[in-house]
Design goal:
313 residues; alpha+beta; 3-stranded antiparallel beta sheet
Length: 313
């Protein structure tokens, strides 16, 4: 979203709150929000084609550390073991900078800790050991799939950056990561993406692994089969939105907009971002523009345990 679009939204927001918006103003605001969301979706869901050629071209542009081995990357920068079975390290670090362009792309890799796995095998019975081996194979497959997805995200960002070097006066992109939570049961990695050209925008990805099964955790996996978790979670989010707006006039969400109902947040989906906090609590996350104006940034909502305790596994 450009600075001009932000100014338009702020002006129309004030007029809306004073109940003085005309039909033309409502239409203008609707189009501004739709355009911002469309741009955001284009950033997040670009299909990665011609990977080998594109990656090779991008590598020529960036300055340091392309295509390092896992062992070399681990020596460059690693994070201590996170939980019982996995660790995370910076596998690739792409950087570029001149007087108008800046890129800082840190590509993490989730690695299964073979030493911890071997220790587990040594204390299990044959049956339990066989089950543990199966879990380890599943875990390795899961981490490989997640790592490949993260690589695609990074490649898309770098390709867009390279394509725009000669066409945009200024641009700034970055990708970083953080481990949000790691316990004996779950591990969650957050990928933080940022892009600016005049104005900036952030969008994030969340990867949660069930360390007991080795599988990537989906939202539905947290609940009993057939349980309706969409409705109570969505209603709890709406409650929090209303409470936050009532407490702070600068907070704004797309909820209860009787004049512009098309903007309203109605419900989460199975694809909505989430993670589990250190206490196992469910946190639902939205990217910029998903449920609120872009100036609100990335927003999240901790779901009250009493809301879902009766249907959680």
């Amino acid at each position: 979203m450009t600075d001009r679009e932000k100014q338009i939204i702020e002006q129309l927001k004030r007029e809306y709150e004073s109940h003085s918006m005309s039909e033309n103003q409502k239409e203008a605001l609707t189009m501004t929000i739709k355009n911002a969301k469309r741009k955001n979706r284009q950033r997040k869901y670009v299909v990665w084609k011609g990977a080998g050629v594109a990656a090779a071209a991008v590598i020529l542009v960036f300055l340091v550390i392309p295509n390092v081995s896992a062992s070399a990357a681990h020596a460059m920068q690693s994070i201590p073991i996170l939980g019982k079975l996995v660790e995370v390290m910076t596998f690739r670090d792409y950087q570029y900078e001149d007087d108008r362009q800046h890129a800082d792309i840190k590509v993490p890799e989730i690695v299964v800790d073979s030493e911890a796995s071997a220790a587990d095998d040594s204390i299990h019975t044959d049956a339990a050991g066989a089950k543990n081996d199966e879990q380890q194979e599943t875990l390795k497959k899961t981490t490989e799939e997640i790592n490949a997805e993260i690589e695609r995200i990074a490649a898309d960002m770098m390709k867009e950056f390279e394509d725009n070097i000669d066409d945009i006066g200024y641009q700034d992109i970055s990708m970083s990561y953080e481990v949000l939570n790691t316990t004996e049961e779950y591990f969650t990695l957050r990928i933080i993406c940022y892009q600016a050209s005049g104005s900036g925008a952030e969008w994030d990805y969340y990867y949660t692994i069930d360390l007991g099964t080795g599988e990537r955790l989906n939202l539905k996996d947290l609940f009993m089969d057939g349980a309706d978790y969409i409705t109570p979670i969505s209603e709890d989010i709406k409650r929090q939105m209303r409470e936050q707006m009532a407490a702070d006039e600068n907070v704004m969400y797309w909820v209860d907009y009787t004049d512009v109902p098309a903007w309203n947040f109605e419900a989460i989906t199975d694809e909505t971002n989430f993670y589990l906090d250190e206490n196992g609590g469910l946190v639902i996350c939205f990217n910029e523009g998903d449920v609120a104006p872009m100036y609100m940034g990335v927003v999240s909502f901790s779901i009250a345990e009493e809301t879902i305790s009766s249907i959680r596994k």
